[in-house]
Amino acid sequence: MRKAFTLMEVLVLATIAPLMLVVVSRIFSTFIQDIPRETRVVQQNTTVLDLLQQVRRDVDGATGLPERFDTTGSDEHTLLIQQPQAVICYRLEDGRAVRTLLKGQGPSDPNEQRLWRMPNAVISWRPWTRNGVVYAVEMHSHVQQRFADLLRNRLVNSQVFFVHGAGKGREVR
Fold it and tell me: What is the pTM of this model?
């Protein structure tokens, strides 16, 4: 009966063990770093998709997309959506999007605001105009992710929302 390992068996084990540890450490590194990073990207994209769904609902019920309402004007950071009872203002600022209901003169009610926090998301919009009438809004979004000193755009999305009230009685081609 054998009571010890031979020198050859010990040398083979001493050679294979470090190689196995390198492979296992790579797998462990993936679980510790990459999975949480990707989870954060997916969570931010879910927030962006929630914002886009709310914009779609607001544009579906819109009568138009005005360039100006009271003291607020539409630009690359502000989107105005004319509803039958009020104007909805979307503003992009400091890694977040704010939806506010504007009803005319005076400050808006803070209870009628909705906020989406998206520190690494990039959202842009561009109105589509025909014969001086804005009939749709094109929206682009993505989540920026820094990885090894490279900035990558992840989960790139593009959508067009048509104003149903703007085309009534007119044909848009």
Answer: 0.75
